[in-house]
Design brief:
Shape: globular
Structural class: alpha/beta
Enzyme class: oxidoreductase
Order of helices and strands: EHEHEHEHEHEEEEEHHHHH
Pfam families: Ldh_1_C (PF02866), Ldh_1_N (PF00056)
Protein name: Malate dehydrogenase
Distance between the termini: 25 Å
CATH architecture of the largest domain: 3-Layer(aba) Sandwich
Largest sheet: 3 strands, parallel
CATH topology of the largest domain: Rossmann fold
GO molecular function: (2R)-hydroxyphenylpyruvate reductase [NAD(P)H] activity; diiodophenylpyruvate reductase (NAD+) activity; L-malate dehydrogenase (NAD+) activity
CATH class of the largest domain: Alpha Beta
Number of strands: 10
Number of helices: 10
Strand content: 15-25%
CATH superfamily of the largest domain: NAD(P)-binding Rossmann-like Domain
Keywords: NAD, Oxidoreductase, Tricarboxylic acid cycle
Length: 239
Amino acid sequence: KDQPIILVLLDITPMMGVLDGVLMELQDCALPLLKDVIATDKEEVAFKDLDVAVLVGSMPRRDGMERKDLLKANVKIFKSQGAALDKYAKKSVKVIVVGNPANTNCLTASKSAPSIPKENFSCLTRLDHNRAKAQIALKLGVTSEDVKNVIIWGNHSSTQYPDVNHAKVKLQGKEVGVYEALKNDSWLKGEFITTVQQRGAAVIKARKLSSAMSAAKAICDHIRDIWFGTPEGEFVSMG
């Protein structure tokens, strides 16, 4: 909670004006632990001596695009970022891939950075994990803090499987299994799963934009747990 950070923001050259706007906003937040913000369009500046790399940018799928077109565009981005990590970052760098398809992009980056241990690479499924926790908390009228050990199997897509078989809920100070707490197996085996699987699409439909703040929060949660580990007896989901 008292760790000072320096943020290094990388974007493509045409977006540098927008990035300057983000920089101004960050300055205007007057965040006590934010020691410096470096905005750049140069990989050799962005990846130099990093402790943590969050790879957010990827090419989104557009209308009429096949999956292979999407992969072709993304392989290029993550090959170049992997190579830059290999060349400039600390060998102990923790790399979190957010850009979709996150699992494939993560593999590409890892393969392109042979000198960095492959266990240092992970991709984001924490947003789905948090969504699953939140749905259970809402259904039971407790806070998300009272729900632990849900699991997201698979990748950040609608084929994932949110699993609550090991999940526990704190009710009146006592920890009980989710099935026992809810006494609603048909919801847990049906609507709950589809809600979590399709939550991203539901947000897009409502906001006309994809998840932003919740995704950012999930990235922070993921990094915190990679850095400090999870509390005793708890587990979280990562790709």
